[in-house]
TrEMBL record:
It comes from the Bacteria. One of its GO terms (molecular function) is nucleobase transmembrane transporter activity. It is found in: Membrane. It is a multi-pass membrane protein. This is Xanthine/uracil/vitamin C permease. InterPro entries: NCS2 (IPR006043). Keywords: Membrane, Transmembrane, Transmembrane helix. The chain crosses the membrane at residues 6-24, 31-55, 75-96, 108-125, 137-160, 172-193, 223-244, 313-335, 341-362, 374-400. It comes from Marinobacter excellens LAMA 842. GO terms for cellular component: membrane.
Amino acid sequence: MVQALIMFVVSLAMIPLLETYLGVPYEVALAYVVICGIGFMLPALLGVPLVPGWITPGIPVVLLFLSDYEPGPEAIQALFALQFLVFLIFLILGVTRLGSKLVEWIPRSMKGGIIIGAGIAALMGEIEAGGRLANTPISLIVGGLVCLYLMFSVSFKGFVDKSNIARKIANYGMVPGMVVAILVGFATGEYAVPDVQWGITKPAFDQLWNYLPFTVGFPDLNIFLYAIPTAVIAYVIAFGDIVVGQSLMNRVDHLRKDEDIDNSIDRVHLVTAIRNGGHAFFAPYPGLAGPIWTAVTATMAERYKYGRNAMDSIYSGGGTFWITGFIALFVLPLVSFFQPVLPIALSLTLLLTGYICLMVGLEQLENNTERGIAGTMGVVLAVYGAGWGLATGAVLYYLIERTHLLKFTSDPEAPGAEKSE
């Protein structure tokens, strides 16, 4: 719960994007965030073990799409078209059960390439010239290093095994790093000291209707057609997130005998479809509705390993997190305190997402042939987009991994590689 009371600030980080790209006032943007919070609570209630989030590495692609439209009714219509298409993709693949088949059909090298590409894209958006890391380097570097040390350091895991204090710190995941980054940001002047206000927040639900497609109008066919490539890219990235989530759950499921984690890929697709459909009509969202918040899911999975005393159930972990985060949206002292440091939450999430995607993506690969294909595909995906990345991965897979059209063989000298008959 303590982690959620701080990490909910990431959901508020969407407000500046809503103001800039959709042209909505702050209070209306806050109403959008509240609707998003309702969607965040759904997966745990519907049997999905992943902590939901946005399609985070896809945000730069979505913003590029929105930049072609004037903020206001035009941009709202365009974002509705995009998010409605994402809803249809998830719905069709969930209902037909093709979503779970994709996990089986796509070769390891291409799965790894998708995840690696998403990780590179997330990191590039932060470290490029003019990015948030360049503008506020001290707070983000210090906070990021603290997060990485506490969550992934081998030496700190040794402390966790020996010290109850270290174990309690580890249970808070990103929170210590976030707190350190915020304090450093205030101390160095990279972020303004907040003007804390008291009371309850007042999202402008009375004005919300004026910024929805029911009022501004629905897009024409041309906008839908123009949104198709971005929607496909968003799904490809989300599919990579689903694979990451499946890997994170598989890594901890066998460690506890008191619960079997039912991580149905089809259920993830259907619940994500419901969330995107709700957003499209009632709060078009630049972050879209993604299947997993990778950094928090990884934190939750780490805590889950320590048994029922640490976390009763994988579902209660994700459910408690977002129910607490939803309540925090109405606590004005919290919202006003974190308002100046919204970029810190978004940046640390993207940086950790990139690190985790690279870690999990490389873990998928079993030999040098797969690593070469996945690495090349990942770089192309991050630099030129998901369409070119997928095409590169498919071409390299057929040219290098397959000996002929109908039979598959990996590097014959690699450990565990299949031999052609």
